[in-house]
Design brief:
2 domains, six-stranded parallel beta sheet, alpha/beta, TIM Barrel, 259 residues
């Protein structure tokens, strides 16, 4: 939250300077309005960009230990959002074929009726993270206590089915704000973002999607995919093979334990 606090202090000083300029230096009130608008735009961008770590620190790349750096390890993490879904078993079949472990950030309201899929995710050694219960934009208009209740409800459903206690949280749409940061901190969970966003939810061409992902991939990347997308199922074998051909290994986005 330090970045947000510094922003508030700077913003107040900045606006106070402009207001003082109106009275003592002949500034226009339009300049004050423009300054406020600029701050609001910056704040909106900060909410929408999880990698800025503006309101809460997010793990956007796989943390590497000294031992991994010395050994030359090149891990890459596959993460799948929005399940459990009818396409998730196909994703699991592919991961099993290549002996690859991944992280599934599941939506709580998707779990009822899909318990067997969630249980399979856990039984096959994958990590389960929380992607909120409701996964709605209105979540960000709620109080910290209401957001906490939403996330906790998803945690309970995950644990009841998989016996995994989720410690990782990925905000819906990658949006953060002060209330969400407070809720996640109170639940003692860690936020996980990404360094490679595939936009597979909008992709239409398999070859273009695969090229887009592979074009900028680097070791310790966290790749954002969606197990509800048929196109993701279609390209996943080629994606895994392409990553392996680069000499990279698959890993989970493990977050260091808090002190």
């Amino acid at each position: 939250m330090l970045k947000f606090k510094y922003f508030l202090v700077f913003g107040l000083i900045f606006i106070a300077h402009l207001v003082a300029g109106v009275f003592y230096s002949g500034y226009s009130w339009w300049l004050v309005a423009g300054g406020i608008l600029l701050l609001l735009i910056l704040l909106a961008l900060a909410c929408a960009n999880i990698r800025w770590n503006f309101f809460i620190k997010a793990t956007n790349r796989i943390p590497l230990s000294v031992q991994q750096l010395q050994s030359g390890a090149m891990p890459v993490a596959l993460t799948f959002d929005d399940g459990p879904h009818e396409h998730t078993p196909a994703i699991l079949d592919i991961l099993a074929k290549y002996n690859v472990k991944a992280t599934f950030f599941v939506i709580g309201k998707q779990i009822p009726g899909n318990e067997a899929i969630l249980k399979r995710i856990a039984e096959e050694g994958h990590l389960i993270g929380n992607h909120s219960y409701s996964h709605t934009g209105s979540l960000y208009a709620r109080s910290a206590s209401a957001i906490r209740a939403d996330i906790a409800q998803c945690n309970r459903l995950i644990y009841d089915v998989s016996q995994q206690e989720p410690k990782l949280f990925r905000p819906p749409f990658g949006v953060t704000n002060p209330a969400l940061a407070k809720a996640v901190t109170q639940l003692d969970m860690s936020v996980v973002g990404w360094s490679v966003r595939s936009y597979d939810t909008m992709a239409k061409d398999e070859a273009k999607l695969l090229r887009k992902i592979m074009k900028g991939i680097r070791f310790n990347d966290i790749i954002l995919l969606h197990d509800r997308c048929p196109i993701t199922v279609a390209i996943l074998p080629r994606l895994i093979e392409a990553i392996q051909e680069k000499g990279m290994q698959f890993a989970l986005p493990e977050v260091p334990t808090r002190a």
